[in-house]
């Protein structure tokens, strides 16, 4: 089984490194030729949460190149899975540059590799299906924590669970026997992973967690656990959650009764973490707020329910990284 990992950032390096260390055939596709060159000479280093070596992967243990080389290589040796491991903003572009290019080059339906989308937030699956109509599209929800520290090195900040499944709207793909094999490969590489026949619930649950924790940690410049340090902060969290739940009710999206307690638990269990949104703000990079709080707003609009707090917080977070013209 060959897995093509697209995006050599935090998640891409973590999954490629651990899969390659477990002798799974991995090809890692980078945006830049320079990063691919560095990976070819240094391999991949995965550090554990204490900064100690978790996996040191030799350059010979995996193949890497620039994304421009993907389709040529794929045609020489077809892969069975594509892991899309970029941020939401780049997900459509990399879908077009990888699987989309194979479509243009006329690969048969039987040859189509499963495409697994790891993005946080909501809305990408629909957009990717627009580019890859009828493809076996899977969503992955992971609670792994990863942070790229060098172009060839990643810190495995926290171990979690990876769920893979086909969202209801894409059920044409159907979870296949190949997907069971994929999960076994992930487990062999040391990931806790399983198939989910209700991935939508997991997507919507993660969306609530991210919509409450991420923007507030980004605006207040605090690690996740600090959200619990004051009643005032928790009141603001509650306000965001309540409004999101009103949107879910209006859209008929189910959620668990103890979702508030679950969010508090995520804050405790990831207390020392810098949320991904805060990390982006600190690095001056665009955040995923449009696809997290922005999607709560968009879902609300579809059901004639305005989510003004999410609208406001989206603007506040965007203001942190937008530079004056
Ligand atoms: N990190 C984590 O712990 C978790 C992340 N996620 C989600 O996973 C997704 C990826 O996150 P993460 O890995 O942290 O993000 P990163 O920003 O660390 O990595 C994204 C990678 O995508 C690459 N990329 C962007 N455009 C292209 C392109 N056209 N061709 C090839 N590569 C490209 C970037 O390249 P370059 O380096 O050149 O910019 C970068 O290496 C996000 O949606 C995130 O929310 C979900 C759960 C946990
Ligand atoms: C769960 C949480 C908030 C952990 O940091 C996360 O997913 C993120 O930072 O994006």
TrEMBL record:
GO terms for biological process: pantothenate biosynthetic process. InterPro entries: 6-PGluconate_DH-like_C_sf (IPR008927), 6PGD_dom2 (IPR013328), ApbA (IPR003710), Ketopantoate_reductase (IPR050838), KPA_reductase (IPR013752), KPR_N (IPR013332), NAD(P)-bd_dom_sf (IPR036291). The keyword Chloroplast does not apply. It catalyses: (R)-pantoate + NADP(+) = 2-dehydropantoate + NADPH + H(+). Residues 5-166 form the Ketopantoate reductase N-terminal domain. Pfam families: ApbA, ApbA_C. Pathway: Cofactor biosynthesis; (R)-pantothenate biosynthesis; (R)-pantoate from 3-methyl-2-oxobutanoate: step 2/2. GO terms for cellular component: cytoplasm. Residues 198-320 form the Ketopantoate reductase C-terminal domain. PANTHER family: 2-DEHYDROPANTOATE 2-REDUCTASE, 2-DEHYDROPANTOATE 2-REDUCTASE-RELATED. NCBIfam families: apbA_panE. Belongs to the ketopantoate reductase family. This is 2-dehydropantoate 2-reductase. It comes from Paenibacillus dendrobii. The lineage of its organism: Bacteria, Bacillati, Bacillota, Bacilli, Bacillales.
């Amino acid at each position: 089984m060959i897995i093509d990992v697209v995006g050599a950032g935090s998640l891409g390096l973590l999954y490629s490194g651990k899969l390659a260390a477990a002798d799974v055939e991995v090809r890692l596709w980078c945006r830049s030729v320079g990063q691919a060159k560095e990976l070819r000479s240094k391999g991949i280093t995965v550090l554990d949460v204490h900064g100690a070596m978790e996996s040191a992967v030799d350059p010979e243990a995996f193949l890497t190149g620039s994304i421009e080389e993907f389709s040529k290589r794929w045609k020489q040796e077809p892969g069975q899975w594509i892991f899309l491991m970029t941020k939401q903003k780049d997900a459509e572009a990399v879908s077009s540059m990888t699987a989309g290019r194979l479509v243009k080059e006329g690969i048969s339906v039987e040859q189509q590799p499963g495409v697994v989308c790891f993005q946080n937030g909501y809305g990408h699956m629909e957009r990717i299906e627009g580019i890859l109509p009828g493809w076996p599209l899977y969503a992955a929800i992971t609670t792994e924590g990863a942070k790229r520290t060098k172009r060839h090195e990643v810190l495995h900040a926290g171990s979690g669970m990876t769920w893979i499944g086909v969202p209801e709207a894409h059920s044409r793909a159907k979870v296949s026997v190949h997907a069971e094999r994929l999960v076994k490969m992930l487990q062999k590489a040391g990931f806790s992973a399983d198939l989910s026949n209700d991935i939508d619930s997991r997507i919507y649950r993660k969306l609530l967690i991210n919509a409450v924790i991420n923007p507030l940690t980004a605006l207040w410049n605090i690690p996740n656990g600090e959200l619990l340090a004051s009643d005032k902060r928790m009141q603001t969290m509650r306000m965001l959650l309540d409004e999101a739940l009103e949107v879910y009710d209006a859209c008929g999206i189910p959620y668990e009764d103890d979702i508030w307690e679950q969010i508090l638990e995520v804050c405790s269990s990831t207390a020392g973490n810098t949320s991904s949104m805060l990390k982006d703000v600190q690095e001056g990079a665009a955040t995923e707020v449009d696809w997290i709080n922005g999607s709560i707003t968009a879902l609300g609009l579809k059901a004639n329910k305005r989510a003004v707090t999410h609208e406001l917080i989206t603007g506040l977070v965007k203001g942190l990284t937008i530079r004056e013209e």
